[in-house]
Design brief:
22% strand; alpha/beta; 32 strands; 22 helices; seven-stranded mixed β-sheet
């Protein structure tokens, strides 16, 4: 992917059963062909197709693929077994998913389809842990793959739409039994489990109940991990069921770029989801998220990290307005509520600059029914063209011009610094701060990303399993991880890595147990310190101040002060306690900061600590790929067999003039035609102009 028959996939989600009207299908497909679209995704909903047990209504779906073949458009089949038939609820009432309070999930109208069969959570109303439900759903998936596997229009399958589940499920008997089996595999005996959970009166495995009280206890950590493993096992089962029939066509999936902060709460593990498919992707809708540039970059960058070198695409991009929904209330009209052609251009181009190699609107044209009427489509309510669709068409034809083949074959080079992500850290913070308004984990992760992004570097999201690919890492909010992960981090530094960590690294170890010596798990030798004092008061963390050399810096989150144990002091808190320590360890270096300056950066919207993050880059020895004179513009460099390409991204509403300096070894600016904008010619020299809400793409000499 991209496959030989499509250079750059461009299209939309088209058919959702209720819409578009049947009388417009043939015309719409013709318009799509004329406008340069080459791929559609449709929702193949179990509830809309298996209208009675073993009775399938394929007619309207057959028509979609036949029209696609006629118009040279490929089809992604979005399997939707989570959209469950009404008859299944009657037939399998024992399989209804339950909340912790015993409330049953119901079969509701799907807001994104205006059709029935949807539950509150992405796993469906009925649990696939019930063998009878799994068998029925498997029969549907088998029939689906058998019917379309050889159709000339098929491109592949999209599995488990947006890869997430509800926070408060599932407490059904089937899921409880699955949880007990998971615990048996992990602990082996009731005695071992009792010791780990601090529960000493289990007489039989059936005595074990999933925790209802969400708090910082080992049983809750196990419950979070089980839910993630369980739902992703169901994802793998969907894939295996289809692959048993269709061994050829593409298997894809897409999430919501939700790993920060929803990996623990909703199972949004982009790394785990991406590991199971050939092509990963993401839904990112500025109307729901906001148009701040860092958010758009986050949406694409975390998917690039999760894809681990696999191709990925922007699976659902906004193409039109969003009305009346809670995410937009009170925001300015220009803040994604009414998408303009220039918005579609900059949102798309930012995704491409981040490495996405394909894009689909989440609507071809808007729904005509339900709360999401009129939303997201680039084409009008009646399917007619709009200025937004004309912009989409211009980009689609440009992207699929053979002249762009080398551009798409290139990939973003590795970022100057990686932001370390450990799933166990988020799990623990979710439990530790479950009932608190303060969310320091989220603020720290996003603040670190923003702090480096705003200093004209490319911060990559790096999973703990992938650290060997990086030389420099920043670890925001590192309060909990396992002893095995601590050993891995120490070995990485010892081999030559440079690690910058915030306060309380590994304060909580395996199962959330607090270490009696801090830093915990032998990390005192890594950082060359011992803890002197610690303060967990994130509600007043904005009062923390410290110095780094001669620079005043704002803290946030937690405070941990130190006594030297081989390291060198680099800064104090305002009350004189030691705040910052650097250390040499093996062939590597560490810098430990006794608070969370990333939290301050995020909470002040970048007004605090910008210079501090720039100084951290200098301390680390990182060399910027591209140096820009204007912080309104962002730069990315892509590299391929034909050379390097410079992407300059201007999300602002005014043209930006900048001076550009390229790092040695990547090439330099040269006079001549730009790759984009069409018709733009770059003068000689280092000064460039990037148009408003647009990008400038140059081949480096």
């Amino acid at each position: 992917m991209p496959r030989n028959d499509i250079q750059f996939p461009t299209g939309a989600v088209y058919f959702r059963k209720s819409n578009p009207p049947q009388e417009h299908w043939e015309r719409d497909y013709g318009v799509a062909r004329e406008d340069g679209m080459n791929i559609f995704r449709h929702w193949f909903m179990w509830s809309a197709i298996e209208v009675a047990p073993d009775v399938y209504d394929w007619e309207e779906y057959d028509r979609q693929l036949d029209l696609a073949a006629k118009n040279g458009i490929k089809t992604i089949i979005a399997e939707m077994v989570q959209s469950m038939p009404d008859w299944a609820l009657r037939k399998y009432p024992q399989a209804v998913q339950l909340t912790a309070e015993g409330r049953k999930m119901t079969l509701n109208m799907g807001v994104s389809t205006a059709t029935g069969g949807f539950g509150k959570n992405g796993g469906g109303t009925l649990t696939l842990n019930c063998p009878e439900v799994r068998e029925a759903a498997g029969n549907f998936l088998t029939a689906l793959a058998e019917r379309y596997r050889d159709h000339p229009a098929i491109y592949g399958y999209d599995i488990w739409n947006e890869c997430n589940y509800a926070e408060d499920v599932d407490y059904s008997d089937y899921s409880k039994a699955a949880f007990r089996n998971w615990l048996k595999d992990k602990y082996g005996s009731l005695k071992a489990l009792a010791k780990a959970w601090y529960r000493y009166s289990y007489a039989e495995w059936d005595d074990i109940q999933p925790p209802v009280q969400m708090a910082a206890y080992p049983e809750c950590l196990d419950w979070l991990r089980f839910k993630r493993d369980n739902f992703y096992e169901q994802m793998q089962w969907r894939i295996d069921t289809i692959r048993a029939v269709d061994k050829t066509n593409l298997i894809a999936a897409h999430g919501i770029s939700g790993s920060i902060p929803y990996m623990a709460k909703h199972g949004c593990d982009d790394w785990l989801a991406a590991s199971k498919v050939e092509l990963y992707g993401f839904t990112w809708i500025q109307a729901r998220k906001g148009t701040e540039p860092w958010k758009t970059w986050y949406g694409v960058d975390i998917n690039r990290g999760a894809a681990r070198g696999k191709p990925f695409w922007h699976a659902e991009r906004q193409g039109g307005p969003l009305w009346l929904q809670p995410q937009v209330i009170g925001r300015d009209k220009e803040d994604g509520r009414v998408a303009e052609p220039e918005d579609i251009r900059i949102w798309s181009m930012t995704s491409f600059a981040g490495g996405a190699r394909g894009i689909l609107n989440l609507r071809w044209r808007p729904l005509l029914d339900g709360p999401l009427f009129g939303a997201f489509g680039a084409y009008d309510m009646d399917g007619s063209r709009t200025p937004r669709s004309e912009m989409q068409s211009l980009m689609a034809k440009w992207a699929n011009d053979p002249a762009q083949a080398d551009l798409w074959a290139a990939r973003p080079i590795r970022g100057e610094i990686g932001i370390l992500l450990i799933p166990e850290t988020q799990d623990w913070d979710y439990l530790l701060n479950f009932d608190r308004d303060e969310k320091p984990y989220r603020d720290a992760m996003w603040g670190a990303f923003r702090g480096f992004l705003d200093n004209s570097v490319q911060p990559d999201w790096v999973h703990i399993d992938d650290i060997d690919a990086y030389d420099i890492l920043y670890f925001p909010y590192p309060i909990m991880f396992t002893a095995e992960q601590a050993a891995r981090i120490k070995a990485w530094v010892e081999k030559g890595g440079t690690l910058i960590a915030e306060a309380c690294p590994g304060y909580f170890g395996d199962r959330g147990h607090v270490g009696q010596v801090q830093p915990n798990m032998g990390l005192d030798t890594l950082f060359g310190v011992r803890q002197a004092d610690v303060e967990f008061m994130p509600d007043i963390g904005d009062r923390i101040k410290f110095r780094f050399g001669d620079m005043a810096v704002d803290g946030g989150g937690y405070l941990q002060s130190y006594a030297l144990n081989g390291g060198n002091g680099r800064g104090d808190f305002s009350d004189g306690r030691l705040a910052v320590v650097e250390n040499s360890f093996g062939r590597g270096r560490t810098l430990l900061i006794g608070t969370n300056p990333s939290v301050a950066y995020h909470q002040t919207d970048g007004k605090a600590n910008g210079r501090f993050f720039a100084e951290l880059l200098k301390w680390s020895g990182a060399t910027s790929h591209v140096t820009l004179s204007n912080r309104a513009v962002f730069a990315r460099v892509h590299k391929g067999e034909s050379g390097c390409f410079l992407w300059l991204v201007n999300p602002s509403r005014t043209p930006q003039t900048i001076e550009v300096s390229i790092a040695e070894g990547l090439g330099g600016l040269a006079a001549g035609p730009a790759i984009w904008p069409i018709g733009h010619v770059q003068d000689s020299g280092t000064s460039v102009v990037v148009p408003a809400r647009d990008v400038l793409i140059l081949k480096l000499a």
